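Can't attach files on this board, so I'm pasting raw text. These are the components:
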Amino acid sequence: MPHLATTYAAVNSLVTLGGDKALSSINREKLYMFLRQMKDASGGFRMHDGGEIDVRACYTAISVASLLNILDDELVQNVGNYILSCQTYEGGISGEPGSEAHGGYTFCGLATMILINEVDRLDLSSLTDWVVFRQGVEGGFQGRTNKLVDGCYSFWQGGIFALLKRLNSTKGVKPIPLGDGEGSGEESPQTTASSDAAGEEGLNEDLSLGGSHSEIGDQHNTSSQVNVIDIDHNHSKGHANVEPLFNSLALQQYILLCSQELNGGLRDKPGKSRDHYHTCYCLSGLSVCQRSWLEDEDSPPLPRAVLGPYSNLLEPIHPLYNVVLDRYWGAHEFFTKS
Ligand SMILES: CC(C)=CCC/C(C)=C/CC/C(C)=C/COP(=O)(O)OP(=O)(O)O
Ligand SMILES: [Zn+2]
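---
Top answer:
Structure tokens for the assembled complex are below.
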């Protein structure tokens, strides 16, 4: 049975492999049809035929569609309303309406809202307030209030900071219209999340977030205002620094010293076993954390921002999709042309 989680993992894996052979092996027409079949009348998505509707399904569907350049109005319709209905009184986002705010779903919800260009509809101030209190004394993040820290939240919560930082950086999200170019030039509203990260040098410079989606043939209606962002890493502006809204060195300490298994691989916490899931999300969390002082993602972090030897520095990732940044650009170019 096709499933959105495995679809997301497979597409990200192929993008990570990169190259024409891997990228052209994805049947985008059939994948688009699958995504349409998973779309629910509520606006949300199901994980699989007859499966659960939740924020993770919305993210995996929209992320894959965006990465493959098959995102259109039909897929986007009412997703934003569904995600909004999951933002809780605490400020974070739950898996389904009425559930508890959780880091995994908050990342998924925030990233989805950015990808569909509706992030300004969330209460970003209370979301920021919620996430800044999720770092434990151990240095790692917990997924939800009063729970234990766990290495995988280094990305789910740490990735939220990476996204908020870009939204906060005065440059905002530049809408790129699909199809006929209608609506171009409009700036989306700036977010008002905590401005603590601002105030340092370089924050008034342009970090445009822009991208474009093309159609697969004439199949999809892409005529209206479906927008997407790409984080533009092409502006080199030296070493502008912003203070992260969490303790970056403490998180790196937790990942490297508590989550790392001496024989290789990473884990939730000492006493737990290593696995691929925690290895992936601890490393992605470490990568965004090492760059949390940087306003400009294009320049390398200063040595003091990287815990331990500078050889600990990981490849940058794209924080919306969680793929190595270089490979994201390869896929972006490939699917923009084809
Ligand atoms: C794209 C993708 C794979 C998204 C998944 C997002 C994600 C990690 C969602 C969290 C799921 C969940 C119910 C965790 C609680 O488990 P728990 O009660 O064992 O953990 P906790 O005590 O830390 O809350
Ligand atoms: Zn975990």
